[in-house]
Amino acid sequence: MARRSAAAGLCLMTILVAGPLAADPSGFLHPLGPIAEIQRTELVWATVAVMVAILPVLLGTPFIMWRYRRTNTKATYRPQWHFDTWLEVGMWGLPIVIVAFLGIWLAQATFRIDPYRTIDAKMAEELNIELAGPQVDMDVVGLDWKWLFLYPDQGVASMGEMVMPVGHPVAMRLTTDTVMQAFLVPRIGGQIYAMPRMATRLNLIADREGRTEAINTQYTGLGMSGQRAEVRAVSPGAYRSWISRAQEGPVLDDETYAIIAQSGSVADAREALGLDGTTPILFRLEATDIFDRVIDRYQNPEGVARDAQPGSPTYNLSSGVLPEADQ
């Protein structure tokens, strides 16, 4: 009876925890791309492997407590017992096998979907997908508390929204013009950190249309929880239409960048620019070297002055203009 109750309780707990995750169509269990699918598979198998060791403990503990309770006179009483070979083999051998299995398998999967690995024809074949077109290069700058997405080849930029064409690899460079941040699009790919003065890389691809979110998972202050951007995987035709619409937006030049680099949300940036509406901000990109100049800001051995540092309480628009490319 006790074993049945324990098993029923464990099943109920699993359903209560896993049910909402599985039912949420925007969650990471419903991937939009092959990389996220592999990560989901890794999670499932890692959970199953760990449960092999955890379930006997969860089920055995209440059984042992009930079976060997003081009032049960039928249970064997062995006050001199101190060792059992098979018990020791199970307690130590099983975890060792599980750790070895997970270590080897996850290491292979990690190298297979290395975020720095370019999604070329060879990798596409490994992922069992077909490339629909050329690679899209994208630069991402983390600010307090928003993401700026730069499309240098297309001459556009966006804030609050990231759009990618289905079937096209997206090669991202990431940095931050404030404190360290972490960029994550759960339904499409993995997480990568972004830090001042350096560029990290992330390669993504979506094989179906859909919407999800990019989030910052690194604590960066009061507005961190709201640092989200809508991510849309669209058809190549819809992507071209979006590019055309963005090219009609306001110009993203040095002065505009200094304004949006202030601490605040996308809505705050929109208000500071004097724009109406609540949709993401689309820019025509005048300077295609903004990403490199953001990195150059932190190359000075003397550091960045407080009034020139985005995110600083004393940040000043005139001082916060990015350095010239040759400095």
UniProtKB/TrEMBL annotation:
The molecular function terms of the Gene Ontology recorded here are: copper ion binding; cytochrome-c oxidase activity
An example of a Gene Ontology BP annotation on this entry? ATP synthesis coupled electron transport
Where in the numbering of this chain does the Cytochrome oxidase subunit II copper A binding domain appear?
Answer: 133-245
**UniProt keyword Transferase, yes or no:** no
Q: For this UniProt entry, which residues form the secretion signal?
A: 1-23
Taken from the UniProt entry, a GO cellular component term is: plasma membrane
The answer to whether UniProt assigns keyword Electron transport to this entry is yes
Give the region (Disordered) as residue ranges.
303-327
Write out the annotated subcellular location. Answer: Cell membrane
Which keywords are on file for this protein?
Answer: Cell membrane, Electron transport, Membrane, Signal, Transmembrane, Transmembrane helix, Transport
* Membrane topology reported for the UniProt record: Multi-pass membrane protein
Instruction: Show the stretches that span the lipid bilayer.
Output: 43-65, 86-107
Query: InterPro entries from the entry?
Result: CcO_II, CcO_II-like_C, Cupredoxin, CuRO_UO_II, Cyt_c_oxidase_su2_TM_sf
Q: Which domain of life is it from?
A: Bacteria
Family, similarity comment: Belongs to the cytochrome c oxidase subunit 2 family.
The name of this protein is Cytochrome O ubiquinol oxidase
